Amino acid sequence: MTTSVEAGIGDEFLERFNGGFTGILHWHQLDALWERLRAQLDGTWHVYAIGEPPPVEPVTAAELDRFIRELDALLRAEHDEEYCGVVYVDSTDVPSLVKIFDPNNLGSSCGSSGLRVLPGWVLSRDIPVDLEAAMPPTRSRRRWWRSLFPG
Questions:
Q1: Which residues contact 121 (CB under 8 A, 6 or more apart)?
Q2: Taking the mean position of all CA atoms in its chain, how far away is CA 112?
Q3: From residue 74, how far is each of 69, 83, 95 by CA, in Å?
Q4: Which of 18, 20, 65, 147 is the one with CA 20 to 30 A from 112?
Q5: Does residue 76 surpass a pLDDT of 80?
Q6: Which residue intervals of the chain are DSSP H helices?
Q7: Is 36 helix (H, G, I), strand (E, B) or coil?
Q8: Is the overall model pTM greater than 0.90, yes or no?
Q9: CB neighbour class for 27 (10 Å; exposed up to 12, middle 13-18, buried from 19)
């Protein structure tokens, strides 16, 4: 069975996803990002919760606005810090892809531990691909798995 990633569909999304990002370190920067996104309530944003099937259709302006409000409340309640640090954007001026890490599943989002932690949510102008399928566990985890269940 060929996945959309194997067939080359979603390459642009993956290229952007693996590209450079700016961390939103302070809460006032997150407020500014939300305002920029609200200025772009044009029906072209996809809201993707990792672990769920990736969306193929963008959300409506009202749905995006509701997601921003609810997610902002969740981040501020569950990431009880003086700084944000769990949101990354490809461009602070003209955002087209935003990664939001789940405060309850941070691991090492920068990858310094050698293990990649996927964000909890992604906002994207491009149609997202299944990130869990596109970014399988490291080979060391595969070796461990195969030692438990050979064959």
A1: 47, 48, 49, 50, 71, 99, 100, 102
A2: 18
A3: 9, 14, 21
A4: 147
A5: yes
A6: 11-17, 27-38, 61-78, 131-134, 139-148
A7: helix
A8: no
A9: middle
Residues 38/65, Cβ–Cβ less than 8 Å: yes
- Alpha helices of 39-122 — where are they, by DSSP H? 61-78
User: Residue 3: what pLDDT?
Assistant: 43
Where b means 16+ CB within 10 Å and e means fewer, 46-70 reads bbbebeeebbeebbeeeebeebbee
Q: Quick one: pLDDT at residue 103?
A: 83
Q: Which residues pair with 46 in a beta bridge?
A: 124
- In whole angstroms, what is the distance from residue 62 CA to residue 21 CA? 26
First to last CA, the chain: 19
Contact 19, 126 (CB under 8 A): no
**CA 114 centroid distance within chain:** 19
